[in-house]
């Protein structure tokens, strides 16, 4: 930016001078150096460091004066700054016409530009200068870019942070200023990446997405930065293919969004560049998936590249208002099975939103008939069509799509999604019924019954459907249809009769003494009791039957013992869990023991053993969940242990992977329940229980290498192992650190879980500071790399890390603590007001300041000044500390004045409380 850009009235004011008598000699010195820079014709002619040193000395003199600058003096400084900047621009142009200067000349030019930026910062906001904050910020931004090119990342970061400070409170007016703020975020991100602060770099990059504001050019800039980081990460560390894939996927997503925005704006040039960027993202993403040995993912990227299709192209056609081309693109994606499922569904959603459900019916039907689409994706498409149940047309189209035979078949093996589809259609039908659209309502209700199984378990749901269909047809005067439905509904009604429980139980016991007694009578009595909803009597009848079974292979009826136990457990499970838990646990233990004694086929029956074992394992799991939720952790632990034993106790390998995963999860929950019970009772677990838990964990560990657990279970496994090592090992710390390292590098790792591990390692009776620091640092990195960082948790983690660093008195720990404060400061710079918790910010500022106290008492002026400056810098970015800042500045200034000899330093100790 040159002086000619200033308005005439400002130039006149600048030229008039005035004010600041004691500063005038310093300004004359600065002007003399500026003239010398203006006379220099080539970078090689610049005296090494001399000009910048002279300017820096004069600038320090100007800053030392406490009185405010008068307006004429501000404008004079503004003029000098621009003259110096323009001289640097001329020198750069001269270097470009000949050849680039050496590194020393380039650094001297950067230092001169730094002084020009500092002069603008000192001048503040002169009256009449438009957007002074953004002009000064642009100087710092451009200077920072030069430092970054020279690989001086620390100086570059300092420039970018000053520029961010200037723009953070300023009102953005226009696209140029908005783009400067975005460029600043991206530049800070690049500088942080250059010094290997990848978590901060990703945090700043994620912040940049909020500044895009629908601009295609901004989409391109942010996507390019994600692509650059992804490429560098992939090249630098091939093992981190998952992290690279996330960055490259984000680049792909942003480039596709940018394509849609560019198409809507009709910017053909940007469309072309974004297509190139999208292609690069796909190519590098394919390479990342190849390194991860995800060959299917690699082929998907390659196919999309080869065919040029994808959700971004569909959105681009829609953005240009060309629905026919968008439909053709979508149909092409449907036919091409190489296009990823998520891309298809995303494009379909955009198409429905643009053209409406009725017009999109054909393309959507073709999409849903692709049986490779899972139930989740199909449900998502129908939900988008239904639009939350709004509109008769949308409801009818949703019902037609859902009633397709191919679509219904997808949901047969997905009970959860099937139930969700039924609920979606039911809500659509109910809304149409309330609007008195009885024809549409009846059609939708009828289609919803396709997602209600015919099992007895779901007869209540079917009865509700029949009754509401009857009402619909009555309203439509279709009385024959109404009569048909009401008859069907009657078949599902259950009339309940109350009986005397004790009398019924006595009658069952009297059967045993009858001469013509047969065990089948007890089964019939149980059925009768169940039909009348008298569950205690049914349990009594079946329990009596179970008592007739001996430990021998013989059985009193054709019904296997396992079936009797299963029926009793099912009936008990329908009653109050607080009273039936002990009996259920006893029955499950009996089943496990009998299975071990007489073999799986002998106990369950030939041909059905696999199914029955799965039922017992699943029921033990469910009971473990229920009892643990009720606070009965001891019973929960036993149920989970039984579930694992049922899984490990069979030899059938047809579903080996599923069985192993179930067994591992059961063991993990069993041990976790033991520890939860210990905390509730406030009693240490016996050594025998701990050793049994360790044996179970070792049993699970043998299969974990080939079984991938959900993240929550992987975390619980590590937590269990961590606690067991702490209880059973003489020196558990090395093993605990290794556990956290392995978890942090796994797919299951997340900031939330790492935080819990870090807290566990730092607050237990036997803390492990090394493990705690490792977990908390990984947690902090994860949060900063998140698209939506939780700054409250970040503040907590930083506070913990500072506390942990303070535990050790090793040499160099003070520098490590200072590094944590520096990291916190970089995070806070550029955040919106109150985005970083104010209490955490105040704690950082005051504790940093107070750390100067001991340094002052020991006469260490440099160390004291460093800590006081850190506290002051943080305080300037924390809301509610305005009253402290002036006093802190005065105290720091006083310390600097007397710091040389150290005498009388004690009076400058000022503790913030």
UniProtKB/TrEMBL annotation:
The region called Disordered is annotated at: 1-26, 34-53
Xref: SUPFAM superfamilies: TPR-like (SSF48452)
Q: Does the keyword RNA-binding apply?
A: no
Keyword Transmembrane helix present in the record's keywords: the answer is no
> Which Pfam family, an example, fits this chain?
SPO22
Q: Name one GO biological process term.
A: meiotic cell cycle
Q: Which UniProt keywords apply?
A: Meiosis
Q: What protein is this chain from?
A: Protein ZIP4 homolog
Organism encoding this protein? Acorus calamus (Sweet flag)
The uppermost taxa in this organism's lineage are:
Eukaryota, Viridiplantae, Streptophyta, Embryophyta, Tracheophyta
